[in-house]
Amino acid sequence: MLLDMQNINKSFFGVKVLDGVNFHLGHGEVHALIGGNGAGKSTLVKMISGFHQPDEGEISIEGKRVHINSSIEAQQLGVSIIYQDPALVQDMSIAENIFLGVEPRVFGLFANHRKMKRDARDIMKSLGYMHHPGTLVRHLSLSEQHAVAIAKAISKRARILIMDEPTASLTDMERERLFLLIRSFKEEGIGIIYITHRLEELHNICDRITILRDGKHVITRDLKGLGENDVIRFMLGRELKYLFPQVTHEKGKELLSVKGLTRKPWFTNIQFQLYEGEILGFAGLVGSGRTELAKTIFGELKRDSGEVIWKGKEVRFRGPREAIQHRFGFVNRDRLGKGLFPDMNISQNLTISGLDHLHKWQFLLFKEEQDKALDAILQLSINIQGPDQKVKYLSGGNQQKVTLGRWLVADCDLYFLDEPTQSIDVGAKTEMYASIHDLVEAGKGMIIISSDLSELLGICTRILVMHEGHIVDEMTRMEATEERITQSASGMTGTPRSEAQEIE
Ligand SMILES: Nc1ncnc2c1ncn2[C@@H]1O[C@H](COP(=O)(O)OP(=O)(O)OP(=O)(O)O)[C@@H](O)[C@H]1O
Q1: How far is CA 8 from CA 19, 24, 45, 56, 211, in A?
Q2: Does 200 share its domain with 296?
Q3: Cβ(79)–Cβ(60) under 8 Å?
Q4: Which CDD domains match (predicted)?
């Protein structure tokens, strides 16, 4: 046995979050660790990465009892962890990040930069990335940063590799590339602990599964013969009747019209309309310009040219604050960047609807809204110790739920949801889709940007596909298929819509 964890217990501030959990990992095994938001998955793996220590219980690696008190000790034992938000130094280069703390040295003294760059380039190339190793990490997209985090783990010759939602921000193609890598790690005998909320991935890549619920071990078994519904039942402790609500909206009046909107280098000459009763989805690869388009309409980025017409009147916001005053809402994918205030408690975070931290106090809502915030906690099943808990102590998925909950209670007229269900468990997704459905029924505008194609196909009434800053395809829910979206998103078919219109 490569890793053996026995009877692990852990409490924070007197609340038990792991209760007698056992976990075993074999050589060359990919072992899925599954559970709802706040079930204790990250806390469990942080015991082997040296971030937390168990209050009780035993950990052995290759049969030898270990006490892992720091990430350096974990590294020395061959444990590497890749988090959902890659922990990289933004102002350092790719090579410096990969070899941070373990730089190759000349005569044991000076960092050997040439070797570092050469090795960094080779590892990145093996992952399919051709970046110059001197590129600063802050110039990379999130998925490219993930590749650097993986390269870092590879460079440390890990025996145990922990992947905490590695695919949450990856496109399908990048995901396939990661799976190939995982298979090659398996062949080398590396044991992988794989945490994900994308249950459809499990059978692709994992051998065994352990499911936790509320800090307790529910089951460990071979994945073979275990269907997605069984996994959901073990995770939630109940059946899930449906994931997506029945969409029955009638298309009504035009709400939003975007004409010739350009913001170089992100997107050019974008045209589209949004109607009442519609849930408009934006598909495309990361970097195709979808997020920047939404941010430009929202006033967070300045446009070069073009018009945005909201309910028949042109709007040109000088910043997000003006957009919020016009009852526009934006759920950000960058949770701890702009979305939340980590040192404030859950109630405060839920009742601040302003994005712009400089003005945060001006958006405090009143008692009535605070009650609504508590409703949101219940509605999205936010697993918390109480409304006074600081957001930084919430699990990743519960932080995302707070971001969402805040906008849902803020009563906006137009919502932009950018990767809204990333890191959210399947039970809460269902609740969220139902909330989206109700908001649209109540006449609100809804624009969803998502890399999760099943989500776009399940919830949207119309889908626009972006590629390299252009809208290259448009389809109704009935016309949409995963194949068509994937092909358009990768630029294999379709003419930029603006160009097609010019040709006509
Ligand atoms: N440092 C901490 N201080 C206090 N509570 C914490 C701390 N870290 C985690 N918790 C709590 O422990 C519980 C388990 O959190 P954990 O992050 O392990 O969940 P998870 O299963 O990884 O969830 P997710 O799927 O949302 O990432 C949660 O209730 C969380 O709020």
Answers
A1: 7, 12, 11, 6, 15
A2: no
A3: no
A4: ABC_Carb_Monos_I, ABC_Carb_Monos_II
403: nearest Cα among 366, 428, 427, 426 = 428
**How many angstroms does the Cα of residue 394 sit away from the middle of ligand 1?**
5
**291 is written with which tokens?**
């997020």
Atom number, ligand 1, closest to the C-alpha of residue 13: 4
**pLDDT tens digits, residue range 6-33?**
999 999 988 899 999 999 999 999 999 9
Which residue has the CA at smallest separation from atom 19 of ligand 1? 38
Task: Reply yes or no: is the peptide bond before residue 245 cis, omega within 30 of 0.
Answer: no
Distance 395 CA to ligand 1 centre (A): 4
**pLDDT band with cut points at 50, 70 and 90 for residue 321:** confident
Which of 11, 16, 42, 45 is the best mutation target for the ligand 1 pocket, counting ligand atoms within 8 Å of the beta carbon and taking the most? 42
397 lines ligand 1 (CB under 6 A): yes
- Maximal C-alpha separation, the chain: 73
369 CA → ligand 1 middle, Å: 27
Q: Which long-range contacts (CB under 8 A, 24 or more apart) does 230-233 make?
A: 231/34, 231/199, 231/202, 232/199, 232/426, 232/427
Cβ neighbours, 10 Å, residue 479 = 11
Domain containing 477 equals 254-503
Rg (C-alpha) for the chain, rounded Å, is 23
Residues 395 and 315 grouped into a single domain: yes
* Interval between CA 90 and ligand 1 midpoint (Å): 25
Domain co-membership, 201 together with 86: yes
Report helix, strand or coil for 447.
strand
* Cα 12 to ligand 1 centre (Å): 9
- Tens of pLDDT along 354-401? 444 333 434 444 455 566 666 777 766 676 676 677 888 888 788 878
CA 444 to CA 311: how far, in whole Å? 12
- Return the amino acid letter for 168: A
Choose the residue to mutate in 10, 46, 213, 395 for probing ligand 1, maximizing ligand atoms within 8 Å of C-beta. Answer: 395
**CA–CA distance, 3 with 9 (Å, rounded to integer):** 17
Q: How many CA atoms lie within 13 A of 496 on its CB side?
A: 14
222 and 344 share a domain?
Answer: no
pLDDT in tens, 37-66: 889 999 999 999 999 999 999 999 999 999
pLDDT tens-digit profile of 220-234? 999 999 999 999 999
Q: In CATH, what number is assigned to the domain containing residue 388?
A: 3.40.50.300
